């Protein structure tokens, strides 16, 4: 499968400092850090996956979906210092648009029109790493018959769905009760879930990508997201009262994969000579010279600068704005690792500043 463009993903990674965000005790500081630091990077990954979806399936994913973000608390909550949700995750992905007269394939138990559907397809990052999650039942209120239509789709296309599951390195999460054995057919699992009213037939990555998560792992997850997209798309079609088009999309995926595999075979480079042995002592010495900003101090800088680039003023809440901690006086010029020598810059302004010394943008006139 093709990979997302290197240019778009350049500089996108999730390191141990990102992981340490989930260990911050202050609930508000943690929520701010996740929202303004991790979500922009996750959105870049999602947009790359959407671009490949357009290439593979000829579908504009945002025609029927919005970008779902979490944490997504309201500014009034922040001003009052009240963050009611104890966020231990950050998620960006696809969710059905809120629309009238669109989701006519489903019914609500209260008889009102369905304007929101219960499907979320996400890149989800937590303390244990980054993975893909598909939630087909995150909202309540649909009728039993509507839920039955969802589960019937999984029963009808179970073999092809699970082929996509393997391709995407994902696994289903089933629940079982006293009336069904842990090891049972898929139909038995689904029918038991329907009988019990337990409709949460979620899927997730078999194993989260562990920190540090670099470009290679991010590309892999983007490819996996594209591979499982026909399941999400088909449920949207059912919600609109249309037939599922999973087989049509799988046909396009197969044709596209064959082209990609042919290209890979044709472009296979000759074997390179083995690299010289690594001088571990030199590598260890070089590593010890690399001093990073401590996580707690890093987020103090962001909070002090109000989660905005001090050069251009853009907020980390704006799509595509990725914040960095910059040394005002660079380390190469003797700059200290101290709060007073740090400032918040977005990626573009940080690259523009370069290695100029004493560029204190917080104190500019």
Strand content: 5-15%
Alpha carbon gap, first and last residue: 51 Å
Shape: globular
Overall number of strands: 8
Average the pLDDT over all residues and give the rounded result.
Answer: 83
**What is the succession of H and E elements?**
HHHEHEEEHHEHEHHHHEEH
Helix/strand class = alpha+beta
> Going across the major beta sheet, what is the strand order?
1-2-3-4-6-5
Number of helices: 12
At the fourth CATH level, what is the homologous superfamily of the largest domain? Answer: Protein of unknown function DUF1054
Cα radius of gyration in angstroms: 23 Å
Helix content: 40-55%
**Low-pLDDT segments:** 1-6, 283-292
CATH class of the largest domain: Alpha Beta
Looking at the overall shape, the CATH architecture of the largest domain is 2-Layer Sandwich
Could you name the CATH topology of the largest domain?
Answer: BirA Bifunctional Protein, domain 2
Major sheet description: 6 strands, antiparallel
Domains, number: 2
Structural account:
The protein has helices at residues 6-9, 16-20, 27-57, 75-79, 144-156, 158-167, 186-196, 215-239, 246-266, 280-289, 295-304, 347-353, and strands at 65-70, 90-96, 120-126, 129-135, 170-172, 203-205, 323-327, 342-346. The chain has 2 domains: 8-263, BirA Bifunctional Protein, domain 2 (2-Layer Sandwich); 293-363, no CATH class. Strand 3 and strand 4 (129-135) form a beta hairpin. A 6-stranded antiparallel sheet has the order 1-2-3-4-6-5. Strands 7-8 form a two-stranded antiparallel sheet. It contains 12 helices and 8 strands.
């Amino acid at each position: 499968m093709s990979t997302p463009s290197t240019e778009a993903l350049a500089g996108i990674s999730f390191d141990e400092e990102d992981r340490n965000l989930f260990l911050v005790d202050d609930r508000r500081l943690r929520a701010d850090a996740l929202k303004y630091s991790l979500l922009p990077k996750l959105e870049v990954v999602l947009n790359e996956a959407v671009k490949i979806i357009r290439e593979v399936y000829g579908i504009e994913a945002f025609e029927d979906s919005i970008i779902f973000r979490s944490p997504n608390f309201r500014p009034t909550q922040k001003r009052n210092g009240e963050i009611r949700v104890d966020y231990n995750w950050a998620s960006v992905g696809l969710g059905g648009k809120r629309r009238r007269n669109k989701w006519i394939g489903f019914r609500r138990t209260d008889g009102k029109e369905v304007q929101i559907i219960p499907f979320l397809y996400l890149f989800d990052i937590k303390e244990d790493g980054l993975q893909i999650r598909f939630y087909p039942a995150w909202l309540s209120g649909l009728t039993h018959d509507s839920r039955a239509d969802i589960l019937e789709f999984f029963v009808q296309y179970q073999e092809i769905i699970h082929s996509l599951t393997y391709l995407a390195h994902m696994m289903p999460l089933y629940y079982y009760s006293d009336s069904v054995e842990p090891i049972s057919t898929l139909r038995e699992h689904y029918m038991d879930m329907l009988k019990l009213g337990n409709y949460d037939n979620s899927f997730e990555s078999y194993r989260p990508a562990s920190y540090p998560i670099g470009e290679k792992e991010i590309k892999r997850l983007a490819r996996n997201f594209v591979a499982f997209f026909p399941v999400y798309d088909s449920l949207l079609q059912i919600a609109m009262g249309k037939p599922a088009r999973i087989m049509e999309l799988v046909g396009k995926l197969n044709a596209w994969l064959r082209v990609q595999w042919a290209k890979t075979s044709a472009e296979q480079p000759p074997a390179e000579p083995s690299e010289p042995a690594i001088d571990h002592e030199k590598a260890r010495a070089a590593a010890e010279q690399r001093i990073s900003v401590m996580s707690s101090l890093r987020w103090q800088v962001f909070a002090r600068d109000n989660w905005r680039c001090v050069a251009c003023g853009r907020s980390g809440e704006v799509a595509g704005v990725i914040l960095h901690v910059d040394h005002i006086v660079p380390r190469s010029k003797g700059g200290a690792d101290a709060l007073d020598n740090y400032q918040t810059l977005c990626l573009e302004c940080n690259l523009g500043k370069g290695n100029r010394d004493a560029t204190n943008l917080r104190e500019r006139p």
